[in-house]
Design goal:
By secondary structure, this protein is α/β, with parallel strands linked by helices. It is 55% helix and 13% strand. The chain is built from 20 helices and twelve strands. Strands 2-5-6-1-7 form a five-stranded parallel beta sheet, sandwiched between helices. It has a three-stranded antiparallel beta sheet with strand order 10-12-11. It has a two-stranded antiparallel sheet with strand order 3-4. A hairpin with a 2-residue loop joins strand 11 and strand 12. Helix 3 crosses helix 9, helix 9 runs parallel beside helix 10 and helix 12 packs across helix 13. The longest helix is centred in the middle third of the chain and has 23 residues. The radius of gyration is 25 Å and the shape is globular.
Length: 433
């Protein structure tokens, strides 16, 4: 019989463009198909880390919202989602008192939509008991502002109040995550780009892992062959942007030294070597490896083995007709000498920037606005349209989506890779920023 709770923490490190995001996307897709609870938090330099963390929970609860059909009636959830919702609902209701649940609803609009009657009743009770409780009311407002504004730092004038509000928020998220982990399903929490997080947020993530492991160990009986649930934390960061003695590496060390049955794995996503590129091109082009040797040498030399650069490099030479499929020969053909002469001075950022600059002016201006936000929703685009930045910003993003610069997930528009966002952001002059 198993006597420990399965709690894993895996951290992917590597330079920008090394393929960390691609690995995570495939993992998330697999977990979603396997009915895992999936929470994704992507940190960004333009977004406050705590705000990004709170947003990930709000997006998670949004997955359980009912969808309105053509006739105006709400469509029923599929059995798998409904089962997960039932587990989650029982855990949430039994984990919070009325006041705490009301505070969570202020932070997470989608949670309030899931339990509108409960949230409204608790809000009414809170309003009736608000008199004489100014400290708590101030903390509640501060907690809500953390989730609602990216400019929260400017509104905090008292360091002591900031600590109190952060502690309360940490406690709410802590209990909520514990409720999610006890819902009877395995949970994967993805934290991308941890190099843009802060010490407090990283500590909150560390508490998530420690609590899940301890809670699972305590709830596991000797008769059980497997635990009811499990947690997989997947984090990614650029190893050239974190210090060995920084807050992130210290937290990883704490997890590794923990005595609460936490298995920690570090994976370095490095550059592809020459023979690996040759094997990949041989497979993709359906050619013997001896036919792709010289091309592989060129690709490795120009890209230094960076996966995202390899993709952009190959797209570029195809767009310039340096590589094409020959119907006569029934194979891909290319001119090694032409490729070497034409592409000899181009790097990763240069390729991406040149691709961006080939877009129409309206598309570039829209991408600049999106780069400042990190990601935007359809609602935000409609508001920005009123400011007349670009006529019909949502329509101009269609070309960027077709070219793979932007990805759309539901109502959210985001860059397909943070390197693309950085390249676009660098197109903005200092005065425009």
């Amino acid at each position: 019989a198993t006597n420990s709770f399965l709690c894993e923490a895996t951290f992917l490190s590597g330079h920008s463009g090394s393929g960390k995001s691609t690995i995570i996307k495939r993992l998330v897709s697999f977990c979603e198909e396997s009915d895992w609870f999936v929470l994704v938090c992507k940190f960004d330099r333009q977004i406050m880390p705590l705000s990004a963390l709170v947003h990930s929970f709000n997006a998670y609860f949004g997955k359980f919202l009912l969808v309105q059909g053509p006739a105006g009636r709400y469509l029923p959830r599929n059995p798998s989602v409904q089962e997960r919702f039932n587990h989650f609902s029982r855990s949430m209701v039994t984990s919070f008192d009325g006041k705490s649940f009301c505070q969570l609803c202020e932070l997470l609009p989608n949670l309030k939509k899931l339990f509108p009657l409960l949230a409204d009743s608790q809000k009414y009770k809170k309003q009736n008991n608000a008199a004489g409780n100014t400290t708590t009311d101030y903390e509640d407002c501060m907690i809500a502002s953390i989730a609602q504004s990216d400019n929260t730092r400017a509104s905090f004038s008292s360091p002591g109040a900031v600590g109190s509000g952060n502690h309360r928020l940490s406690h709410l998220l802590h209990v909520m995550f514990q409720a999610i982990c006890s819902g009877g399903h395995p949970v994967v929490f993805v934290a991308e780009d941890l190099h843009w997080s802060d010490p407090f947020t990283v500590d909150v993530l560390g508490d998530f892992v420690q609590t899940a492991a301890l809670c699972g160990s305590n709830n596991l009986s000797a008769e059980q062959e497997e635990p009811k649930g499990s947690l997989l934390l997947v984090g990614s960061y650029r190893d050239n942007e974190v210090s060995a003695d920084g807050f992130l590496m210290e937290q990883i060390k704490c997890m590794e030294q923990s005595k609460r049955n936490v298995n920690v794995t570090r994976l370095c996503v490095g550059e592809l070597r020459y023979h690996e590129i040759n094997r990949m091109l041989s497979f993709k082009f359906c050619l013997p490896m001896r036919h792709t040797v010289e091309l592989s040498r060129l690709v490795h030399h120009k890209t230094r083995g960076s996966p995202i650069h390899i993709v952009e490099f190959l797209r570029s030479i195809i767009e310039r007709n340096m590589m094409s499929f020959s119907v006569k020969s029934r194979r891909w053909v290319w001119d090694d000498a032409s490729i070497e002469i034409q592409m000899i001075s181009e790097g990763v950022v240069e390729l991406l920037t040149r691709k961006l600059q080939q877009f129409p002016h309206d598309v570039i201006e829209t991408l600049k606005v999106v780069a400042c936000f990190g990601q935007v929703s359809e609602t935000t685009l409609k508001i920005l349209d009123l400011g007349q930045f670009v006529p019909d910003m949502q329509e101009t993003l269609d070309l960027a989506i077709k070219e793979g610069i932007i990805e759309k997930a539901g109502p959210i528009f985001a860059f397909s890779h943070d390197m693309l966002q950085e390249s676009t952001y660098n197109l903005i002059s200092a005065e425009e920023r």
